[in-house]
Amino acid sequence: MSTLRDDDFWDGPTQEPLLPAKGRRARGKATSKTERVETRGRARALQALYAADLRDHTQLRRIATTVFDDLAVAPDERAFASRLVATVADRGEQLDAALGEVTNNWRLERLGAIERAVLRLAAAELACDEAPVKVVLQEAVHLAERYGTERSARFVNGVLDAYARMLGKL
Q1: CB-CB contact of 57 with 100 (8 Å)
Q2: What pLDDT score was predicted for residue 108?
Q3: What is the pTM of this model?
């Protein structure tokens, strides 16, 4: 049974080694510490958004702090995740309204908690305008697939593509 402290539940299976074997590159990709921190920071922010969605979204900041403390999130990951969580906390109603415009025939409240959290996370990151749009979309789809289902990933991809186009970023 998974618990809030169960790393397998929160982190899922490792897709690639954290450090490639000596003399080899991981799957042909150059890995940078910055990239890894951002990817893990997104997953941590998603965990906080998901937990708040299930408990009390009005207490997002407090719940995020508890989740980050319970999981002993590294300071650099925590800083990145906290910026995204703060954006959702500060601009959540605006982000939800904008996402609602592109979720044809679906009210945001009717979506699954994972899909809703991933969409909010990606919308917040697009609002911060720090990462390339395609990276934000790709990471969101990966999170939806990792924590949701393949169907979740397709849905998130379609909604975020429409959202980015509505914002004029694609």
Answers
A1: no
A2: 82
A3: 0.78
Q: Which amino acid is residue 72, in one-letter code?
A: A
CA angle 21-22-25, nearest 5°?
65
Cβ(155)–Cβ(103) below 8 Å: no
Distance CA 47, CA 5 (A): 11
pLDDT < 50 positions in the chain: 1-31, 34
What CA–CA distance (Å, rounded) separates 11 from 147?
9
Look up residue 28 and give its DSSP letter.
Answer: G
Q: What would the DSSP string read from start to end of 73-140? A: --HHHHHHHHHHHHHHHHHHHHHHHHHHHHSTT--GGGS-HHHHHHHHHHHHHHHHT-S-HHHHHHHH
**Calpha distance 135→138 (Å, rounded):** 5
- Interatomic CA distance for residues 118 and 139, integer angstroms: 10
Determine contact, residues 60/48, Cβ cutoff 8 Å.
Answer: yes
- Judge contact between 14 and 111, C-beta under 8 A: no
Question: SS3 of 141, please?
Answer: helix
Q: Could you tell me if 121 and 42 are in contact, meaning their C-beta atoms sit under 8 angstroms apart?
A: yes
